[in-house]
Amino acid sequence: MGASSLDLAGMLEELGRVTDEPGRLTRTFLSPAMKRANRLVAGWMRTAGLKVRTDPVGNLVGRLAGTDPRAKTLLLGSHLDTVRDAGMLDGPLGVLLPIVALAELRSRGVQLPFAVEVIGFSEEEGVRFASAYLGSKGFCGQLKVGDLALRDSEGVTVQAAIDRWHGGRGAVDARHLPKAAHRKSDLLGYLEVHIEQGPVLEARKLAVGVVSAIAGQSRFKLTWTGRAGHAGTTPMELRRDAFAGAAEFAVGVEAIARRTPGLVATIGALEVTPGSANVIPGAVMHTLDVRHARDAARRSALMEMGRLATRIAGRRRLVRRWQRTQNHDAVACSPGLGAQLERSVRAVQGRSIPLVSGAGHDGVVVSALAPVAMLFVRCRAGLSHHPAEFASARDLQVALDVTLDFLQRLASAQA
């Protein structure tokens, strides 16, 4: 390593203190903490020599021009939002590590022929609006009118959140949706560095591995409507208990996932109305997240879940409504970029193994705009979405060295 003025571990810790909730790390789409995070990371980008801008949906973009003005642009990045009570690595690692890598190349006097953009996407986790990838969708020109109408728990729409972020200037609306930041023909590809969120690298005693594919994912918001009533005076046979129907559905979904190899299904958020101890639930809203590396298997399971919901609603005299909030097919990573990344991993680590990501990433959306490569970094016990999320200083250094090697090999290939 050279004499870069940026310290990755220190940056991760400092950014990890920027939160919307005192005492735990929670940073959501277009929140006050997100604005503070953007300012902090923008300062580090400028230290590394990047020119900084923020796009209409709050994505932070730092650009470093290449020596060849006709060369294409390489994208590197990940997201700056977090889940509730998060760790400091999921997302921010993929933003801060490229900044440190570019600062290191600058300290060595190494110039790249192609331009590089480091992107801190404003939304990936789907926490505030129960719909993921709003940041990368905006960057890639995929934001839809329906996305603007999504509401958070306080009734604020995506449209209103964007307006507030820009001081009411209306940077985005139904008639002025963001266009893609780049043409496909202008891009070399996209590299995302991310903790593995799984146990494979730890089991293989390896610091990093190359991702071959990202599993397909579907998310829904389900509403079950029955009839509220007095908990003490309504006989069981006359009840139309929305929660009982939702609970039966949840157990059925678990059974479908257990008998479908490779399928994972999760009901992670639930709201009961009216929410009183002595009142039969009249309505329930909950999320549903279904993932599989094969799209056909995921779609088949979803059809089975739909039939299950129809049977439950009919038998319990409930009305059920499905709203799809997200749907992305499985994404195969670029063979060309992946091979280049594998060469860098072998050069630094000695060997490389392929990995499939069960988690979604911004690369899912960016893949429509550019070839995608991903580097996974070992995390202790495969733990993620948790305050104890951890990667060792040694493993972070390996990931940084691989990224530096990858950038320089790619530069040589473009020469």
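That was protein one. Protein two is written in the same sequence-then-structure order:
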Amino acid sequence: MKMNQDINHTLKLIPLGGLGEIGLNMMLIEYGDSIVVVDAGVMFPEDHMLGIDMVIPDISYLQSRAEHVAGIILTHIVPEIRAPIYGTPLTLALVAERLKEFQLEDLVTFVTVRPQETITIGPFTIEFIAVCHSISDGVGLAIKTPFGTIIHSGDFKIDHSPVACQQTDLNRFSFYGEEGVLALLSDSTNVEREGYTLSEREIETYHG
């Protein structure tokens, strides 16, 4: 599915971290003069990184194009790049508390979103899709671009009887699958392992 393309522009997916590693997630989606930042994670240091508390992505490319950032969906780069931050209620609450530690809460604009809501950021139309994860309020993204739809699953698991989160909205992901997807960006820890993860409900019952 293609929208209004401009042959003078290229759609770019630029990962700055998070591929093949746990944490450090950051993906830029760029079209023309508009950039949306999806995730901005940190990673705990490895054993050989002595004296380092946190590892963050290399954002030099993003710094060089800071004026083109149309929106940020969760980020730790607030002091350097000013753009609205979009997230679900729990996610923004956690981010706000973190920013207060560094007196940065007045530098940002928070925009609360919820699953099944759709927003427009620059040339992108983004739908938030409920996903189940180890923390509540997780979402995946359906990002409509001038060249087609990108699905960004976020980190997720399939649990049909979760305790602390909503079920992953497989129906909505299926809808986009049938409609046509340009690219699927998917993240699920230990997905290479065979079998199924126990449901949170089963674990609760077992330990109860």
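The chain has a mean pLDDT of 81. Keep this in mind for the problem set.
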